[in-house]
Amino acid sequence: MSQLIVGNWKMNGLREAGQALARGLAAAAPQLACQLVICPPFTLLASLAAELRGSAVAVGGQDCHAAPHGAFTGDTAAPMLADAGASHVIVGHSERRHYHGETNAEVRAKAEAAAKAGLIVIACVGETEAQRQSGHEMKVVAAQLAGSLPEDFNGIVAYEPLWAIGTGVTPSRDNIAAMHAHIRALLVARFGVAGTVLPLLYGGSVKASNAADLLAVPDVGGALVGGASLVLEEFLAIARAARG
Ligand code: PGA
Predict the structure, then answer these.
(1) pTM of the full predicted structure?
(2) Which residues are 156's β-sheet partners?
């Protein structure tokens, strides 16, 4: 399977810059071997999905609500994302878990709602620095997976250690390989044969200078990229480092 490179723009992107970035990606995408997804802020989602229709770049949301509609001021339902042209959605990003207090059960409900709306779910897990230092990272990620993934999960898992997000620090290749092997074993134990093929992404300070190294780690099926996805040439360099 070709590797998947996902750009998570987070709360960045005004119309002009967002459109320029999307256009640049669409122009370069036919020469890339990997698959590309961008997750812009909600304000740009519909316009960029329209702009990118027919291109090799897919569009995703950064979060969704668990309910299909209703009195939830400020929230966005999964069917709305699909209606706006999204094919993917990130759930359980550590910034949602941290700043919005999202629990595993809430993440799971969001993942269920997203799948029901026809979206491909990118479910994020990852330990804090303290959890790794105390040797609990495997246990923490196992609990997040057990609690956050629905019974019939058929999406993508992104391993993002919190201490690597936005810090410029990345785990060693051995650490990533060990965690991905751990996640793979848990997915197979739970989902059987289906668990052998669910894509696993690595995320946390992926940039042009380390992408080739990180993308070559066993069972890394691609990358979830934050900061570096906001700079066209940087994001394209990461995409060029990916396998087809
Ligand atoms: P970063 O963010 O690439 O800026 O570290 C990754 C993420 O939070 O998805």
Answers:
(1) 0.98
(2) 122
Query: Are 137 and 175 within 8 A, CB to CB?
Result: no
Q: Which of 165, 207, 234, 238 to mutate to test the pocket of ligand 1 (most atoms within 8 A of CB)?
A: 165
Residue 17's alpha-carbon distances to 12, 20, 44, 225, in angstroms, are: 10, 5, 11, 18
Could you tell me the end-to-end alpha-carbon distance of the chain, in angstroms, rounded to an integer? 7
- DSSP states of 182-222 as a string? HHHHHHHHHHGGGGGTS-EEEESS--HHHHHHHHTSTT--E
Q: Which residues pair with 159 in a beta bridge?
A: 125, 202
pLDDT in tens, 187-225: 999 999 999 999 999 999 999 999 999 999 999 999 999
Q: Which of 93, 112, 137, 180 is catalytic?
A: 93
Could you tell me the two tokens for 36? Answer: 């590309």
